[in-house]
């Protein structure tokens, strides 16, 4: 296992969230010092990996100064006090660009915060800036006509995954402790797997979605990227809760989660292929190793055959094409050949679908849920691979993997998108070691509706068997990383 422990002697953005908050609240370290270290790392990471669309040094340092002033005055500080955060460049932050990786919005500056950004501010997190994404968050890679290619810190010739790739790189390199992303088909969990992070797609309504084109199209989510499950446990609660700007948030409150190493009574279903995917042998081996670890630790683990087929994946793809055509087709028309031609082709496909055929996809979704509901009737969680293989080259694209094998299976990249078609189920990608080439491999945890507590518990249990590792050269000070 390459990499280093998360235990450090000093406090900075690479530290655990709980350690940062405790140090800032006590005055042992200033929020300004944390901010300066984060900005220094961000500039280095940007030069190597192109992960930021905008670094807001002035805004971050001003917020840190105000936070230190409040602490000195004896005022109470929020649950994320001094924690550096990066926001994906399709989520509005007042005064910063909101370009969505597209020339269609190259000059756009947000005049107000998205609700999730407001909640970060109210929790006293420090917003470092905006991160790169594929154009209109349309790809499982992270490159765009406006910002170019974002690279993976584990291997700069590989993609960090998309579309929230910039946020993943910002977290993986220790620039920030929390990366905000969006997830309509895996755009948080894909880069989490590629970059060795924990990435959460929460259940629909858990995080407010007031800033996106549609919260009625229920497969869209805000999500979070952190380095550990413990960090995610602290990051999620301050961002949750109802708001009238998104009526989906009127859901049962988040259940508090506490870690326990006792797995007795936990029932885990494991599927290698979710019914129809071709996966690389080392991905299968990683999943089997995790399953064996959980079984040895006391859980009941059962390998199952999930009765899903290619119609589910094909249906999600059609849904996604229509979403892009409906909400971004006019933008692509407006900028013509400055748009990503791959995105333009996808939008053309979306425009070709008729309303009745799209409505009939609900029949496929119902069949998908009927199968999954039977799994949850007898198991607490479903475990599967996040991706079919480790991170692939930055010079590749999604189309290369949109194919069927000779035996009729899907040769894809991500195995995440179909879980957005059951949006009420939280799903987490958790690191489970490295490939033979030293690239991270993630496993995917899907929990029953609105049950983030079980998903988080599972993430913590898996993490106990595969401690955190860092990209080469980006570990904390004193461990061979940057200072």
Brief write-up:
The protein has 483 residues and is an alpha/beta fold.
Characteristics of this structure?
single chain, 483 residues, alpha/beta, eleven-stranded mixed β-sheet, two-stranded antiparallel ribbon, 13 helices, disordered N terminus
Describe the structure.
It is a single chain. The protein is of the alpha/beta class. It has helices spanning 17-26, 31-49, 57-72, 115-122, 165-172, 189-195, 229-235, 281-296, 310-335, 341-352, 355-359, 361-378, 452-465, and strands at residues 52-55, 84-88, 126-131, 143-144, 148-149, 178-183, 198-201, 221-226, 267-270, 300-303, 381-385, 403-404, 410-411, 427-434, 440-446. The strands form three sheets. An eleven-stranded mixed sheet has the order 1-3-2-6-8-7-14-15-11-9-10, with helices on both faces. Strands 4-5 form a two-stranded antiparallel sheet. Helix 9 (310-335) crosses helix 12 (361-378).
């Amino acid at each position: 296992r390459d990499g280093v422990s998360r235990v450090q002697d000093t406090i900075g953005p690479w530290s655990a969230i709980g350690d940062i908050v405790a140090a800032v609240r006590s005055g042992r370290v200033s929020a300004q010092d944390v901010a300066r270290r984060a900005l220094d790392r961000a500039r280095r990471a940007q030069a190597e990996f192109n992960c930021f669309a905008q670094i807001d040094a002035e805004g971050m340092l001003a917020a840190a100064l105000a936070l230190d002033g409040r602490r000195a005055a004896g005022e109470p500080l929020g649950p994320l006090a001094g924690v550096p955060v990066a926001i994906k460049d399709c989520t509005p932050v007042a005064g910063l660009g909101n370009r969505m990786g597209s020339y269609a919005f190259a000059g756009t500056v947000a005049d107000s915060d998205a609700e999730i950004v407001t909640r970060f501010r109210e929790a006293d997190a420090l917003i470092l800036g905006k991160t790169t994404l594929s154009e209109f968050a349309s790809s499982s890679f992270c490159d765009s006509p406006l910002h170019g290619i974002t690279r993976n810190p584990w291997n700069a010739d590989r993609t960090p995954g998309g579309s929230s790739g910039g946020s993943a790189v910002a977290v993986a390199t220790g620039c920030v402790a929390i990366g905000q992303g969006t997830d309509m088909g895996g755009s948080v969990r894909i880069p989490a797997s590629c970059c060795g992070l924990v990435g959460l797609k929460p259940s629909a309504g858990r995080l407010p979605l007031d800033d996106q084109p549609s919260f009625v199209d229920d497969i869209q989510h805000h999500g979070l990227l952190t380095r550990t499950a413990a960090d995610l446990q602290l990051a999620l609660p301050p961002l949750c809760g109802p708001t009238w700007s998104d009526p989906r948030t009127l859901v049962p409150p988040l259940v508090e989660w506490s870690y326990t190493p006792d797995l007795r009574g936990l029932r885990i279903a494991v599927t290698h292929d979710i019914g129809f995917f071709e996966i690389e042998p080392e991905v299968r081996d990683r999943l089997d190793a995790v399953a064996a670890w959980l079984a040895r630790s006391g859980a009941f683990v059962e390998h199952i055959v999930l009765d899903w087929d290619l119609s589910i994946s094909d249906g999600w793809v059609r849904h996604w094409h229509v979403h892009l055509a409906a909400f971004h087709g006019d933008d692509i028309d407006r900028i013509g050949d400055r748009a990503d031609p791959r995105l333009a082709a996808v939008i053309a496909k979306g425009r070709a679908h008729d309303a009745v055929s799209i409505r009939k996809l609900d029949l496929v979704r119902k069949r998908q849920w009927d199968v999954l509901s039977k799994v949850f009737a007898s198991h607490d969680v479903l475990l599967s691979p996040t991706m079919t293989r480790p991170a692939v080259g930055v010079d590749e694209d999604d189309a290369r993997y949109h194919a069927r094998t000779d035996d009729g299976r899907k040769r894809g990249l991500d195995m995440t998108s179909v879980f957005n078609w059951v949006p009420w189920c939280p799903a987490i990608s958790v690191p489970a070691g490295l490939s033979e080439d030293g690239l991270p491999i993630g496993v995917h945890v899907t929990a029953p509706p609105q049950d983030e507590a079980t998903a988080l518990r599972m993430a913590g249990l898996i993490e106990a068997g595969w401690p955190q590792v860092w990209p080469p050269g980006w570990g904390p000070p004193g461990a061979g990383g940057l200072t």
